[in-house]
Amino acid sequence: IVSKKIVERLTIYKREIEKLIKEGKETIFSYELEKITGIPATTIRKDFSILGVKLGHVKYGYNLIYLKRVFDEILGVKKPWNIAIVGIGNLGRALMGYTGFEKRNFNVICGFDIDEKVVGTKYNNKPIFHLNEAPQILKEYDIHIIVLTVPSEVTESVFKYFYDLGIRAFLNLTPVIINCSSCVYVENVDLTSPLEKLTYYVDKNICN
Amino acid sequence: IVSKKIVERLTIYKREIEKLIKEGKETIFSYELEKITGIPATTIRKDFSILGVKLGHVKYGYNLIYLKRVFDEILGVKKPWNIAIVGIGNLGRALMGYTGFEKRNFNVICGFDIDEKVVGTKYNNKPIFHLNEAPQILKEYDIHIIVLTVPSEVTESVFKYFYDLGIRAFLNLTPVIINCSSCVYVENVDLTSPLEKLTYYVDKNICN
Ligand SMILES: NC(=O)c1ccc[n+]([C@@H]2O[C@H](COP(=O)([O-])OP(=O)(O)OC[C@H]3O[C@@H](n4cnc5c(N)ncnc54)[C@H](O)[C@@H]3O)[C@@H](O)[C@H]2O)c1
Ligand SMILES: NC(=O)c1ccc[n+]([C@@H]2O[C@H](COP(=O)([O-])OP(=O)(O)OC[C@H]3O[C@@H](n4cnc5c(N)ncnc54)[C@H](O)[C@@H]3O)[C@@H](O)[C@H]2O)c1
């Protein structure tokens, strides 16, 4: 089992490698990956050896298709993962229809909500159940990951409800930081960090 | 002007520092920040010296309030930034109502769309203009950043339209990678990387 920080860097390596493959590149050296990601080449080589990546070819570097295969394997993205979205408002609906998930083997199975106007309907051909139907639906469809797009006031209580039902992985899109015990994994997404990077450049009026 | 990679790390430092301040901590050493972020302490110290941060106190470390003030200054987040959202569908509406932006001095001024049913209405008290009204609206409200939440098919053309109107900073939430020339800054956000981190943990059935 590798540290959380290596997993963090692993998704960065994978994303950049996928971009390079799309651009038609075949190999890469660790110092080139350093230029693209900003992660020191020594850290990259250390990570690769911990992750079990074979040494790169002295003349050509690492083969990109090989790297992607190894990383997909480690990240467990080869298996299809069933996910459910909780809180089918604006953001929840956008995620129910997002094609980016299916392409990476994430199947959005259904949604959960408490609003009578929404429960029992379908969005993008996926059913929306009432929150209190979750116990049997999670088992029936083998759902292991919950995406939270509920109003901030109910984030903690909805998280606890699904934790008690055995869910151990959450993608939290609400602005509330969830206090969690051990044995659960929460990934928080916040759109303001990318915006702050933009303001740095606009503020200094600089080009790339 | 610092490198893109340092700006990338800067937003990570700032986010972690804000969390620590919220938890009531007052100082931090670079080796503690390394444990939290995974960024080597040598890189942290080098970044801090490039960013003009005063050396930490030998016994106590760096003062967190001081660090946040310096980083806010550098990132230009002290000034209010006017932004507009283009494509007021599910995702666009979620962003029009997102409280996380106002808290960090980002003012969502308005939206742009082409759908007659949406143009001329308001969402969360903010007006939605037709795309062809952008030339005068951007100037009138001093808008410097555009958030793209349009369908993938039109990402490139809408990007080009705003680039030609002088916009140099874009937050791209569509799955299309925009080919951009120099002198423009695009931040791409993709929800599948955080999901891939989750699958690593669920797959290995490990606790934090
Ligand atoms: N991370 C980001 O960058 C970002 C961006 C936009 C919005 N958000 C956040 O996403 C969340 C949703 O935003 P929105 O614009 O879609 O809001 P919304 O009000 O349109 O949708 C909320 C939905 O949650 C449902 N709901 C309420 N209580 C519930 C409960 N106990 N169990 C299940 N469902 C429940 C409501 O019925 C509604 O359908 C908010 O917390 C918002 O702050 C985050
Ligand atoms: N980054 C992510 O993780 C993520 C998540 C969900 C959705 N998305 C993406 O966000 C985008 C929007 O998703 P959605 O569910 O809100 O779609 P949607 O169809 O609900 O909304 C699209 C809106 O764009 C408008 N539009 C179409 N052409 C336009 C043009 N030329 N100029 C201005 N407006 C135009 C439409 O009228 C509509 O209001 C899609 O590209 C989707 O793939 C990304």
Extended strand count of chain A? 9
CATH fold naming of the largest domain in chain A: Rossmann fold
Structural class of chain A: alpha/beta
The unique ligands bound to this protein are: nicotinamide-adenine-dinucleotide
Instruction: Report the CATH architecture of the largest domain in chain A.
Output: 3-Layer(aba) Sandwich
Report the biggest beta sheet of chain A as strand number plus sense, adding barrel if it closes: 7 strands, mixed
Please, what is the oligomeric state?
Answer: homodimer
- What is the share of helical residues of chain A? 40-55%
Helices and strands of chain A, in order, run as HEHHEHEHHEEEHEHEEH
Q: State the distance separating the first and last CA atoms of chain A.
A: 38 Å
| Radius of gyration from the alpha-carbon trace of chain A, in angstroms | 20 Å
The number of distinct structural domains of chain A comes to 2
Low-confidence stretches of chain A: none
How would you describe the overall organization of this protein?
The structure is a homodimer of 208-residue chains. Chain A is of the alpha/beta class and 208 residues long. Chain A has 2 domains: 4-74, Orthogonal Bundle (Arc Repressor Mutant, subunit A); 81-192, Rossmann fold. Chain A is built from 9 helices and 9 strands. Chain A has helices spanning 4-22, 30-37, 41-50, 64-74, 90-96, 99-103, 134-140, 155-164, 192-204; strands at 27-28, 62-63, 81-86, 106-113, 122-123, 126-130, 143-148, 169-172, 185-188. In chain A, the strands form 2 sheets. A 7-stranded mixed β-sheet of chain A has the order 5-6-4-3-7-8-9, with helices on both faces. Chain A has a two-stranded antiparallel ribbon with strand order 1-2. In chain A, β7, α8 (155-164) and β8 form a beta-alpha-beta unit. At the A-B interface, α1, α5, α6, β8 and α9 of A face α1, α5, α6, β8 and α9 of B. One nicotinamide-adenine-dinucleotide (NAD) sits between chains A (86-92, 112-115, 118, 131, 149-152, 154, 158, 173-175, 189-191) and B (94-95, 97-100).
